[in-house]
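User: C-alpha cells in, sequence out, please.
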C-alpha cells in the first residue's frame, strides 16, 4: 500500500483465511454454555451462481472427496439455489459432529478457491438452535475473513438483540465482523 492509497483512504483487501472456520467447534462450546445454542448438523457455502463444465467438475470433485466419509447418510453435498439467484452447497452431519461439518465447509470453500472460483464465494453458514427452537447461524464472510451471528425470527425479521448478545459471547472465540452494516440477512439459507 502506497502513500497515495493512504491519502485516498484505500485499503488492502482482506485475504480470506479459511482456517478461521476451524474455530467453530470451540466457539460452539462457548455458545452452548453461555446461550444454550447447540449445532444442528447443517451447514452451507453460498456463492454467486456458476454455470458450465468447469464448475460441474469442481462439484464432482467435492462430492468425491466428501463421499469418502462413511459416517454420512444421504448425499455428501447437495446443490440448491435460493430465490435471490445464489447457489448453496449444503452439508448435513450428525449434530454432535461439528468438526466434521466444519471440515466439509472448509473442503467446499478450498475446492472452489483452488479451482478459480474464489471470487464467487460469499459466505459459509453453520446452523445452531436453542431448546426453544430459535435458530442461529454463524456466518463466515469469505471476502472479509470474519464471522457474524444471524438470528432470524418470523417473516424476514431478525432478532437483533440476540445477535448482539451472541457477538459479545463469542468475541474471544471468533474473529467477529466489526462493521454491523456487513451483517447481511441470509433469508432462506439452507444451512440454518
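Assistant: Sequence out:
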Amino acid at each position: 500500500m502506497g502513500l497515495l492509497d493512504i491519502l485516498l483512504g484505500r485499503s488492502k483487501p482482506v485475504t480470506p483465511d479459511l482456517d478461521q472456520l476451524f474455530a467453530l467447534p470451540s466457539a460452539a462450546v462457548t455458545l452452548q454454555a453461555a446461550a444454550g445454542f447447540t449445532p444442528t448438523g447443517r451447514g452451507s457455502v453460498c456463492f454467486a451462481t456458476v454455470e458450465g463444465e468447469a464448475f460441474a467438475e469442481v462439484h464432482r470433485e467435492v462430492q468425491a472427496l466428501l463421499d469418502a466419509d462413511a459416517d454420512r447418510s444421504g448425499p455428501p453435498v447437495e446443490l440448491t439455489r435460493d430465490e435471490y439467484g445464489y447457489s448453496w452447497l449444503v452439508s448435513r452431519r450428525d449434530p454432535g459432529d461439528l468438526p466434521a461439518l466444519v471440515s466439509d465447509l472448509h473442503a467446499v470453500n478450498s475446492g472452489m478457491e483452488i479451482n478459480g472460483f474464489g471470487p464467487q464465494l460469499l459466505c459459509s453458514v453453520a446452523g445452531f438452535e436453542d431448546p426453544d427452537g430459535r435458530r442461529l447461524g454463524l456466518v463466515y464472510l469469505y471476502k472479509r475473513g470474519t464471522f457474524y451471528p444471524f438470528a432470524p425470527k418470523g417473516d424476514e425479521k431478525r432478532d437483533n438483540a440476540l445477535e448482539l448478545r451472541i457477538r459479545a459471547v463469542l468475541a474471544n472465540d471468533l474473529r467477529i465482523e466489526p462493521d454491523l452494516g456487513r451483517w447481511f440477512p441470509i433469508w432462506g439459507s439452507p444451512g440454518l
